[in-house]
Amino acid sequence: MSTSSAIRAGPSISSATWNVAATSCITPSPPGRRPRHLAIVARGPEKLAEFYSGIFDMELFHRDPDGSCFLSDGYLTLALIKHRLDGDTPPGMNHFGFHVADTSGISAALVASGADEPAERFTNRPFAEYRAIDPEGNWFDLSAHGFGGPRPAAEADGE
Asked: Which residues pair with 79 in a beta bridge?
């Protein structure tokens, strides 16, 4: 098997290591608390945008002047942030985001859990309103209005 076909096929998972019955009882996130955004710092965001739009039928809905590209499949937005040589942020996973119905309620729950209060994001871009940090230092965003891009059909129809 070639390396590229092994990557596409992925690892095989035996029934001994993956219990389908155990995963069938997972309760979906309640409405208003869903992961909807992923941001990756990329050396070549245009090339990655072509890759993800070509393979996964994602739509480019915004391009920043610096070349950062924003894609969506109608559910998840994928931000491909242009890597800056003068910046401190390395290429790779940067942050993820949750579309929530009530940012103040989620903020209160975070503080009650011992996490820092989410910081308001002052930006002219129409994405997340707050940035929070989990107990291991991973950044995540909270947004009541969403992350831009096309909305899923159920939300667009008001369901």
From this structure: 39, 70
